[in-house]
Amino acid sequence: MKNITIAIDGFSSTGKSTIAKELATKLKYVYVDSGAMYRAVTLYAMQHNLISEEFFLKERLIDELDNIKLAFMFNPDLGFGEIYLNDVNVETEIRNMKVSRLVSKVAEIPEIRKKLVEQQQQMGINKSVVMDGRDIGTVVFPDAELKIFMTASAEKRAKRRFDEFVERGEQVTFDETLKNVEYRDHIDTSRKDSPLVKAKDAIEIDNSTLTRKEQFEKVYKLALEIIESN
Ligand code: CDP
């Protein structure tokens, strides 16, 4: 049995994290949600009045990067690591619409990407990791043995994300959610540093019409083929 690295990239709300968590649990691998790290840095910037819809003090945020400590702590009840920002659990707070509106602006900054990519590479140094994000197969782990690129129509994705917001009791409309998904797709694919693009050797899965189970079976089978090969 080989220890491998699994990179799952794709557009916003394609269900990457659901499949990545399921896969990590089944394989007894570590799951890392790289998007949570960009979201936590965004939350820090919001808490310190460095960013809002109207302004962004980029240089100040870059200067403060050393004050931002991120860590994942495994929660046995959930079966995955929750993110801590300077020792505070922010797993729920980073998912709100306010953070979602600003995160892609923060994720465009090369200095921030560099710092987070280094941490992500460190977390995957022993392999046996499933990481999801936008640049995992292209930049973080270009040598990952299995790369998945997930897509689905913007409407499907927005519906999924909207249902999550409703479940958490957040007051947002479907239209706002769809706009946010499209807005982030645009920034994430057009930014200069590490844009969201399918790695040449990634396997594309459009899950618009796949059930969660079908999608999992497909990726699990691909992972096992590599793990059990010589
Ligand atoms: O869960 P969702 O698909 O909404 O997004 P996420 O994975 O939580 O990522 C939030 C944002 O962080 C993305 O829209 C990107 O702007 C940024 N991100 C990134 O630039 N690179 C990554 N590896 C992961 C996320």
Question: Explain this structure to me?
Answer:
This protein is α/β, with parallel strands linked by helices and 230 residues long. The protein contains nine helices and eight strands. The protein has a five-stranded parallel β-sheet with strand order 2-6-1-7-8. Helix 4 (97-106) runs parallel beside helix 8 (174-190) and helix 7 packs across helix 8 (174-190). 39% of the residues are buried. The N and C termini lie close together (8 Å). The protein binds cytidine-5'-diphosphate. Residues 12-13, 34-35, 38-39, 103-104, 107, 133-136, 184, 188 line the site of cytidine-5'-diphosphate.
CATH topology: Rossmann fold
Our count of domains comes out at 1
CATH class designation:
Alpha Beta
Give helix % range.
40-55%
Query: What small ligands are held by the chains?
Result: cytidine-5'-diphosphate
Number of H- or I-type helical stretches: 9
Q: List unreliable stretches of 5+ residues.
A: none
- CATH superfamily (homologous) name: P-loop containing nucleotide triphosphate hydrolases
Q: What is the name of the CATH architecture?
A: 3-Layer(aba) Sandwich
Query: Helix- and strand-based class?
Result: alpha/beta
Summed over residues and divided by their number, the pLDDT gives a mean of 96
Distance between the termini: 8 Å
* Number of strand segments: 8
Globally, the shape reads globular
Give a short account of the largest sheet.
5 strands, parallel
- Write the H/E string, N to C: EHEHHEEEHHEHEHHEH
Strand content: 15-25%
Spatial ordering of strands, largest sheet: 2-6-1-7-8
Q: What is the C-alpha radius of gyration, as a whole number of Å?
A: 17 Å
